[in-house]
Each structure stands twice: as structure tokens, then as C-alpha cells.
Amino acid sequence: MTLDQLRAEALVCTACTLSDRRTNVVFGEGDPLSPLILVGEGPGEQEDKSGRPFVGRAGQLLDKALVEAGISRAQVYIANTVKCRAADWSTGKPVNRAPTEEESQVCRRWLIPQLQLLAPKVILCIGAPSAKNLIRKNFLITKERGLYFPCEFAKTAIATLHPSYILRQANMGGDGGYGLLVADIEKAWAAAQKLAEKA
Ligand code: URA
Q1: How far apart are CA 140 and CA 178, in angstroms?
Q2: What is the pLDDT of residues 59-105, one digit of tens each?
Q3: Atom of ligand 1 at shortest range from CA of 126
Q4: Which of these, 44, 46, 112, 159, could form a disulfide with 131 (CB 3.0-4.6 Å)?
């Protein structure tokens, strides 16, 4: 199975009800040979529209943080734990929501083979749901972000704050944790490069 074959299968997935209302499956993109993969939570409105991960407001902040950490988006691979947008449609107008535990579990059928095919040196989990999915169920993002953890799908995994969370905090003044996001990306990239040199 190649990454393109896996993507082709994922694009027509109907394994959960998120497929009923999606516009696009957001499989992931970037350099498949990169030693670093970033794994977010799941697509929002802009990602659903475009089929690309992290292209909305949170994505723009992530891009800025990547550049500030000395790398560009093209140098990494970016994916999500859940490949279709989770939204609450009860008012008629979709409002983004976190994917349920069941939706995340069902979508592991794409995430796990994707990680196995990419075989990154380092996984940077963007936000708590990704860290809970890939590092440990009871992961504590505020206490444990920026630390290395063993991971079945890479040499090591690190988690950082989600840019959407940072945007919400920043509205209350301060940088909302943006500096930590940049520092965690720098750390993950340095570790990925070091591990890639050794290989
Ligand atoms: N938030 C995520 O976790 N992933 C995206 O692709 C966009 C926003």
C-alpha cells in the first residue's frame, strides 16, 4: 500500500457519520519524507472547503510559528487525527465541535497506516486530542507539552498547544502561549533533524 493508495481509499470513506456532511476529506499534505509530522485535531470550515489541513485562522498562526521556528510548511508533513470536519448542525448552520472519542477511534483506520507509511522520526501532536490519541489517553497538555514521550509510530512524540486555543487566550491579552508553540516546534524540528542524521 502506498500513501497515494491510502489517500484514494480515505477520500471515499463512509465509516462514520462525519462523511454525511463533509465537502472534502482532509487526508494530509506536505513532504512525505520529512522527519517531522504534525498531527492536529480535525478539519474546520476552511479545511473542509479546500481539502487541505490547517488553512484557516489556526493554520495561519501555525504557519507563522513554523517560520518563526526557522522552518516552512513545505518541510514537514501535516495531518489530523480525524479526516472529516466535525460540526454541530442542530441550528441549521454548522458550528465546529471537537470530534467524539468514537469518531477519533474510527478514523484511526486512516491515521495509523498513514503514520506507518510516513515513518517520521518525530510526531508533534498539535493540541490535547491529538496527544491523547497518539501519546497517552490521560495526557495533560498544559503540564506535559514540550516533553519527549515514547510513541509507537515514531522515535519520539512531543505535544504543543493548539493554535485555536492560543487564539482564544490571546483575545484576553498576552501571547496566549504563542511563544510556547514556537519553542515546541523548534524543539521537535531539532530532534527530528538529529534523529534523521543518525539514520
Ligand atoms: N485545526 C486542526 O486541528 N486541524 C486543522 O486542519 C485545522 C484546524
Answers
A1: 18
A2: 999 999 999 999 999 999 999 999 999 999 999 899 999 999 999 99
A3: 3
A4: 159
For each of the domains in the chain, give its residue range(s) and CATH number, in order of start: 3-198 (3.40.470.10)
- Ligand 1 neighbours, Cβ below 6 Å, are 40-44, 47, 53-54, 56, 58-59, 80, 126, 164
CA distance 179 to 175: 7
CA of 198 to the centre of ligand 1 (A): 31
Closest CA to 28 of 91, 112, 103, 98: 112
Ligand 1 centre to CA of 79 (Å) is 8
Cα of 199 from ligand 1 centre, angstroms = 31
Buried b (16+ CB within 10 A) or exposed e, 39-50: bbbbbbebbbee
Low-confidence ranges of the chain (pLDDT < 50): none
- What is this structure's pTM? 0.97
